Amino acid sequence: MNRASLEKRPDEVAAMFDGVAPRYDVVNDVLSLGQTHRWRRLVVQAVGAEPGQRVLDLAAGTGTSSEPYADNGIDVVACDFSLGMLTVGKRRRPDINFVAGDATNLPFADNSFDASTISFGLRNVNEPRRALEEMLRVTKPGGRLVIAEFSQPTVALWRNLYTEYLMRALPAIAEKVSSNPDAYVYLAESIRAWPNQDELAAWITGSGWGEVAYRNLNGGIVAIHRAVKPGGTPRPSAAPAARARLRRRSTRAVN
Ligand SMILES: C[S@@+](CC[C@H](N)C(=O)[O-])C[C@H]1O[C@@H](n2cnc3c(N)ncnc32)[C@H](O)[C@@H]1O
Fold this sequence. Notes:
binds S-adenosylmethionine; 255 residues
């Protein structure tokens, strides 16, 4: 099994990630031209978790997206269904709590996390809206959702250049640095087939989340969507003016 099809059958997706696991992080750094570090920092900021809080990092893979939480005294649970990715992660960071689980049927109790986040994972999930509902279920009322995912550059010229990179340069580079270049053809195709920023925001709202907003990174190559589970008490730090600003920004870019 070299790559999953765009049907994203769970067994094919898991097998594909099992195959790329040993070199996953190195190849990521090369293909993103070093940008992943900045994207990850901004995701952690958006989650805004505090020491002692419990955070679900879904589709955590090798746990690279989970590390900043563990490093800051946050009780992070790194969940993924690729045993290959989890094994690499556990070997590298034995202190992180890695859990095998499917995003569409999470092995966690209702209302058991202060925040749920998923970085570059939702696009690979066979039923992404079901995963959004599952993250809602396991997050406490008032808790946060933060999603980082590849998206659509907003300016036509940049979009065209990026599409060229995705469809031509990226597979060629992957051929040199990855043990499974076909997986990176899947990456390019799945990014192109993925909903744009507003469509994903509508999915999140449709799954029951409130206060949905997003910001674009690198002109829209990546978008960070965030939302809040309805029913919580308002956070003391969110002054009325700030809350009104957030509502106005709802479901549109907040660069
Ligand atoms: C591109 S990796 C992202 C890993 C990590 N979050 C990061 O930022 O480096 C995508 C991960 O999604 C996982 N995945 C895809 N579908 C899943 C599902 N239904 N349940 C759990 N994990 C899933 C894959 O196994 C893979 O490890």
